[in-house]
Amino acid sequence: MPAKIERKILKSGDSKVTALPPDWLRAFDINVGDDVTMLYNSIVIVKPKGFKIDEDFLKKEFALIMKLEKAREGDSNHE
């Protein structure tokens, strides 16, 4: 299910929000009112409640993210 999408940042009260991808929400059966954990520094990771993260998992995820990023860069070089 790796994907790369762009989203607008919207205002909600005093906060700023963005929508989570519907495919991702369905894959993890996340609904309105459910809790998620957010980990952030330079990037934000949204972790479904009860989902376990370990170093090997993160390495695989970031390898997929880098492939998506490089594919996107290649696409923009052809425009």
Describe it for me?
The protein is α+β, with helices and mostly antiparallel strands. The protein has one domain. The chain has helices at residues 22-27, 55-77; strands at 10-12, 15-17, 36-40, 44-48. The strands form two sheets. The chain has a two-stranded antiparallel ribbon. A hairpin with a 2-residue loop joins strand 1 and strand 2 (15-17).
Number of individual domains: 1
Characterize the main sheet.
2 strands, antiparallel
Helix content: 25-40%
Strand-residue proportion: 15-25%
Oligomer: single chain
Distance between the termini: 26 Å
Count of alpha/pi helices: 2
Describe the structure concisely for a colleague.
By secondary structure, this protein is an alpha+beta fold. The chain is built from two helices and four strands; from the N terminus they run E-E-H-E-E-H.
